[in-house]
Amino acid sequence: MEWLHELFKKSPEIALFLSLAVGYAVGKIRFGKFQLGGVAGSLLVAVLVSQVGVQVDPGVKAVLFALFIYAVGYESGPQFFNSLGKQSIREIVLAAILALTGLATVVVMAKLFGLDKGLAAGVAAGGLTQSAIIGTAGDAITKLGLDAAEVARLQGNVAVGYAVTYVFGSFGAIIVCVNILPKLMGRSIREDAIKAETAMQAGVKVLGPEQHAALPELVGRLYEITQGKISVEEVENLDPATAITIERVKRAGQVIEVSPQLLLLPHDIVLVVGRREAVVSTSGFLGKEAYAVEGMELTMQHREVVLTNKEFHNKSVAEIRTQTAGDVRHGIYVVQISRMGQVLPILPETIVQVGDVVSIYGAEQDVKRVADIVGYVIVPSAKTDFVYLGAGLVAGLLVGLLVAKVGSIPLTLGSGGGALLSGLLFGWFRSRHQSFGAMPAGAVQILKDLGLAGFVVVVGLSSGLQAVQTVRQQGFTIFGVGVVVTILPMILTMLIGRYILRYDNTAVFAGALSGSRSANPAFGEVLDKAENAIPTVPFAITYALANVFLTLLGPLIVALV
């Protein structure tokens, strides 16, 4: 193993990426219905790799975690601020319950197994994966009036307890949130994530990546006219409620210009575009359907336009239809209206506001004409606005440096909490002003995946060797106590959340539970299973509270043990 030690000493990044590669491969292996997942697999492999001796700069861990948590906040900012209100009380209670059950578990286990104040606080910090407990407990130990040697011994024990229990603290939370919780609920995280997203989107069917409706709402059809002398305008107004558009006409082998007054003659070939219901209902009137007629091809565009025209602000869909002339709307179909990431039903009484995103469909010239009237087109881009990304991270990390004291206890969001808060705010602001601050979905995903998995690997590489050595020296007592401290409070909180707080959605509950334990690796796995951002909002609320509640446990444990 000496050659490996030398290799990792020269290039510790090899150990990091090796752990990621092997860890994700291990995470794909199924043991019946159980599967570790990439994050848990990477953590275990990193602990194994750490046994040859690996030194990774702690700054790497801080950078990776900041990227992960900021991307999570950025993605879910609009949903988060829409969800604040009375409905958040349940998350507040859940976070408080986990902190209280965690405190009780640590104190009882410390009394049963004769752990001193330092070891008890360290077990709490590692088993509950709240590193801030090390600081608050260490500060509380200095105020006990003990001699310097005893203070040093107890503070050293805090570090020992933390090192032994932190790895399983991360791993155990994944097991509870990803494996045990869905069994209790009787439904998978993915199943309920889709259900919740569909409900948020006002009943609109939610399609996953690369999924398409077999029966699309908007269609194009070719027909050979059998009726005699009817104008384009008359055809298009057969059913004003569900309009169709004649986009092209071919007569005697030549494509001719289309105008409202153009009379359609028998044997003309027309390209009809519109909503399926209207096209199908009109087909019998037009004639027989034709196929693959040369020169009748037409490329349609689908564009998202941000509403900035104040003439349409706070007006209903019906009012806007009445207000705009037929020639303005001609050839344009509104596919979707969304506000802050939430889809609105396209009903006559639906009110639109400045900042709403309107998805329109039509021929290129029609889309451009209407977009100029409505607002500005969101230009799809594969590039990230690093000015906005950098500013968001700087702002969040600065907020994380702020400290407020409750008595002698310092409370701070830390870099993680600050980056999360900043991500939420910057993501929300971007949803309101989409002309800048772009971060494509693929970029968000790589920041989340690499940030979290890399963070977990650095933890395993840094703590794994010391943890294993301590277990060998002192036996499995501390490790076993840590397992109980990790699992029992989560199980109790899970049961209370299910049967008293009445959580009925697995994805939402998993997000809230992982946040109430500040269990970032578990949350990463929950997100991976959900395949959407539904768990993020409850996680963001409980995570922020957990940073405060769990930090307060340090001096309480020192006082009670």
Fold blueprint:
Blueprint: H1 2-10, H2 12-27, E1 30-31, E2 34-35, H3 38-50, H4 58-83, H5 89-113, H6 117-127, H7 132-142, H8 148-185, H9 189-200, E3 218-225, E4 230-231, H10 232-236, E5 244-251, E6 254-256, E7 263-264, E8 269-275, H11 276-286, E9 287-290, E10 300-307, E11 315-316, H12 317-323, H13 326-329, E12 332-339, E13 342-344, E14 351-352, E15 357-363, H14 364-374, E16 375-377, H15 386-400, E17 404-406, E18 409-411, H16 414-432, H17 441-474, H18 477-499, H19 506-516, H20 520-530, H21 536-549, H22 553-560
Antiparallel strand pairs: 1-2, 3-8, 3-9, 4-7, 5-6, 5-8, 10-15, 10-16, 11-14, 12-13, 12-15, 17-18
Helix pairs in contact: 1-2, 2-3, 2-17, 3-8, 3-17, 4-16, 4-17, 4-21, 5-6, 5-18, 5-19, 5-21, 5-22, 6-7, 6-8, 6-18, 6-22, 7-8, 7-22, 8-17, 8-18, 8-19, 8-20, 9-19, 15-16, 16-21, 19-20, 19-21
Instruction: Give start-end ranges of low-pLDDT stretches.
Output: none
Structural class: alpha+beta
Determine the number of helices (DSSP H or I, runs of at least 4 residues).
22
Strand order within the widest beta sheet? 6-5-8-3-9
Q: Using the alpha-carbon principal axes, give the shape.
A: elongated
Strand fraction band? Answer: 5-15%
The mean pLDDT is: 83
